[in-house]
């Protein structure tokens, strides 16, 4: 009985995760957002968006802080703080502009600036349902910044 319940829960959580990602992706497309990048030190989110990242090659896990989302094709990628080549710093002029807390890029601009995330360090599709729900909460808080 326990085995069946565990499998049922896992299947249900997997479906919920797919639905949550699909709804986030649809919301980004509706708002014409290809990527959203936030500064975790300044954003003031209620929760810190983090995932447990599992390295298949090294059989290791680590905690990765999420600093944004990138909608590429039909996939929604998490942008990892300090591992990805992405930061709000690349999207303002320090000599004449105030450092932004949140940056949004159109789909075309995101493709130009971020390229294909497949196999690039700092972009991941990993994360549990609970972790993705925290990221979704941060996404909506970032939109309100």
Strand content: 15-25%
Uncertain ranges: none
**Main sheet: strands, sense, barrel:** 6 strands, antiparallel
Structural class by helix and strand composition: alpha+beta
Radius of gyration: 16 Å
Mean pLDDT: 91
Q: List the total number of helices.
A: 4
Q: Count of DSSP E strands?
A: 6
Overall spatial form: globular
Order of helices and strands: HEHEEEEHEH
Q: Portion of residues in helices?
A: 25-40%
How far do the termini sit from each other? 47 Å
Structure description:
The protein has 145 residues and is of the alpha+beta class. It has helices spanning 2-30, 40-43, 107-114, 129-143; strands at residues 35-38, 50-55, 60-72, 75-80, 102-105, 123-124. A hairpin with a 2-residue loop joins strand 3 (60-72) and strand 4. Helix 1 (2-30) packs parallel to helix 4 (129-143).
């Amino acid at each position: 009985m326990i085995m069946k319940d565990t499998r049922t829960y896992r299947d249900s959580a997997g479906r919920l995760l797919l639905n949550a990602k699909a709804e986030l992706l649809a919301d980004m497309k509706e708002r014409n957002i290809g990527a959203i990048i936030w500064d975790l030190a300044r954003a003031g989110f209620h929760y810190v968006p983090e995932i447990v990242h599992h390295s298949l090659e090294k059989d290791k896990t680590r905690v990765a802080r999420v600093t944004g989302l990138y909608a590429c094709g039909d996939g929604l990628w998490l942008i990892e703080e300090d591992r990805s080549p992405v930061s709000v710093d690349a999207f303002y002029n320090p000599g004449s502009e105030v450092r932004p807390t949140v940056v949004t890029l159109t789909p075309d601009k995101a493709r130009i600036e971020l390229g294909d995330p497949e196999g690039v360090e700092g972009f991941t599709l990993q994360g549990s349902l609970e972790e993705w729900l925290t990221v979704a909460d941060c996404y909506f808080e970032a939109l309100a910044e």
